[in-house]
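Handout, section 3.2

Students often ask what a structure token actually looks like in practice. Rather than define it abstractly, here is a full record for NYN domain-containing protein. The first block is the sequence as you would receive it.
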Amino acid sequence: MFYKDDRLAIFIDGANLYASAKALGFDIDYKLLRQEFDRRGKLMRAYYYTALMEGEDYSPIRPLVDWLHYNGYCVVTKPAKEYTDTMGRRKIKGNMDIELTIDAMQLAPRLDHAVIFSGDGDFRPLVEALQRQGVRVSVVSTIRSQPPMIADDLRRQADNFIELDALRDIVGRPPREQQSSDG
């Protein structure tokens, strides 16, 4: 499904990819991920989307965001919103779907292939719109977790579904908890 001369872009829904990889029991090595898709075509852009908590002295995602920024990723962030649900639980909301969609649509005329790292069914209309512009779309997520992280209608709409677990040996590394306990 990938061709060497394809102008390629990757769009990573950070929270969704993190949850999918965690459900499969590994962490993503973003340097290897970028290298892999650089190898599969002419990688024009690699986007990473995430919401950040404002006002916290330390955010666990900050070192990753900084590393991605300095290593060739276009990092798109926005402040996460904190709220209390009807049960009185503290919740954090930081949906990046609109930002990812706008970037993908703006880049579409200069792309042959878009790779979306998300299983979120909300992206099905984006996939369809990109396809109408002649862009092939691959979606990376997993059906091997319980429950599956990919929405069925998104998987069906995509030109190509890439099982995240099949990329484990290429772009994965053991979760940090295992690394630190092993030595």
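Discussion prompt for tutorial groups: The helical segments are 14-24, 30-40, 62-70, 97-107, 124-132, 152-157, 168-171, 176-182. How would you have guessed this from the sequence alone?
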